[in-house]
Amino acid sequence: MTQRHEELMDAAVQLFQQNGFHATSVADITEACGISKGAFYKHFNSKENMILKLLQQYYDDMFSEADRPQDVYNQSPLLVLKRKIMVELEKSLEYRSFFLALLTEFPPYETGPIPEFLSRIQATHQKWHKRALLNAFGSKTEKYLDDLTLILEGILHSYLMQMIWKGTALPLDKLSDLITECLKAIVENDELLTPILSVYNSADSETFILESISNELHALRSEMNTDNAQSEKDLQTIDFLAEELTQEKPREFLVDALLAQLHQRSYLKTRLIGILTEWEIWKGE
């Protein structure tokens, strides 16, 4: 990303937060950066395209920072989970005005590229939460993982609303500790838990999970840029992976290796979150 590209993105975020998306024009953005409209269109096809790139960058940054290995957390899955929660809280507060404007002007019941992107990224975000919980608490949570994920998201949402709408300043480190300990208490005392969501979700079916992974791989493949040799190799890997998943008994070691190879590509990390989570659930890990 060039310096000019970053300047345009930064200026747009400020203007979107101040004036809203519809009220901010391309001319407003270029004027704030001191460039021409022609220069703007060298970086973005349209204002809508810029909004989509801003959203993708936000989630890529959040997932990347939250998933970044930290030596101090290596020995404790719970500390890793706590850090993920804290990063999510920090990023949500940092971009709160941006998302409030976004949700006000692009409600989920509308159609179009932006609401559709928000719907897709919300599903990816939820799968990221599931994977974080699986990594923290292990396979014993699988039978009620959907419910535990919704509990985590409900807690996060409620505290964020307390901080955003009421202006309550809360210590995020202690809040992350509290949320993690609440989840731990649920998992450690799960003998009497009766799963609700998983009972009504067909995603418990192994066949359904493999079909879902295959569909996500197909969608990923269709969105990839094939202009360079590396992308072409990645496409071949995706095709090989999709073919393996059609087998009666997919070879776990091979699928693991192919997913690990794809996950090394920074531009694929976010899109692979849901696929990796579903694969771990299918394996029973």
UniProtKB/TrEMBL annotation:
The keyword Ribosomal protein does not apply. SUPFAM superfamilies: Homeodomain-like. Residues 25-44 bind DNA. GO terms for molecular function: DNA binding. InterPro entries: DNA-bd_HTH_TetR-type_CS (IPR023772), Homeodomain-like_sf (IPR009057), HTH-type_Tx_Regulator (IPR050624), HTH_TetR (IPR001647). The keyword Lipoprotein does not apply. Keywords: DNA-binding, Repressor. Residues 2-62 form the HTH tetR-type domain. PANTHER family: ACREF/ENVCD OPERON REPRESSOR-RELATED, TRANSCRIPTIONAL REGULATOR, TETR FAMILY. This is HTH-type transcriptional regulator YerO. It comes from Lentibacillus kapialis. The lineage of its organism: Bacteria, Bacillati, Bacillota, Bacilli, Bacillales.
